Amino acid sequence: MLLNKRFKPIVLVGFMGSGKTTMGKLLAQAYNIPFVDIDSKIVESVQLSIPQIFETVGENGFRNYEYEQLQAQLCKAQVIATGGGIIEHSKSFNLLKQTNASIIWLDAPIAVLYHRIQHDDNRPNAHAKSFSNLKSLYLSRVSRYNEIAFIKVDTDKPSSEILNEIKQALN
């Protein structure tokens, strides 16, 4: 399948640590299309790290930057990795609900996600949080991921299996 002829972006959503960036790069490579990471675009445009952005303009300010980047990126045939909390901002959530993109929810058991992110200082919503706190945050987001995604893929397995599952769903 030649994705670029469809002109339909692939958007990866899911909780922190679910593998959106890793799988996004592999997926873009497999389809020979660009890959864009919304968080990286924000850091590049604002010239601050994500924790610094949260410190300076708060989570709401960060979510506004996220919405602007999402809006700008949805018009291109590419793979887009979103931030785990993009569905928290109503404008971003509604934009994702209305877009013609293929939205894929990457997920893993909460214990796996916690293990992947527990020592990552670049995630303000996870930094110094207990398993219980992160599980509550995860559970508060699940229904929103489910509402916008056309498929849910378990990422607690080898990348090659995940990639094949996604490719089959897209075909």
UniProtKB/TrEMBL annotation:
Family matches, as Pfam families: SKI
Binding site for substrate: D39, R63, G84, R141
Residues the entry annotates as binding Mg(2+): T21
Cofactors: Mg(2+)
Gene Ontology molecular function, alphabetical: kinase activity
Compartments it resides in: Cytoplasm
Entry-linked InterPro entries: P-loop_NTPase (IPR027417), Shikimate/glucono_kinase (IPR031322), Shikimate_kinase/TSH1 (IPR000623), Shikimate_kinase_CS (IPR023000)
EC annotation from Swiss-Prot or TrEMBL: 2.7.1.71
Species for this entry: Staphylococcus ratti
Transmembrane segments: none
Catalytic activity entry: shikimate + ATP = 3-phosphoshikimate + ADP + H(+)
Protein's UniProt keywords contain Cytoplasm: yes
Binding-site positions, ATP: G17, S18, G19, K20, T21, T22, R123
Pathway(s) of this molecule: Metabolic intermediate biosynthesis; chorismate biosynthesis; chorismate from D-erythrose 4-phosphate and phosphoenolpyruvate: step 5/7
Metal-binding as UniProt keyword: yes
Cofactor, how bound (note): Binds 1 Mg(2+) ion per subunit.
Protein name (database record): Shikimate kinase
Function: Catalyzes the specific phosphorylation of the 3-hydroxyl group of shikimic acid using ATP as a cosubstrate.
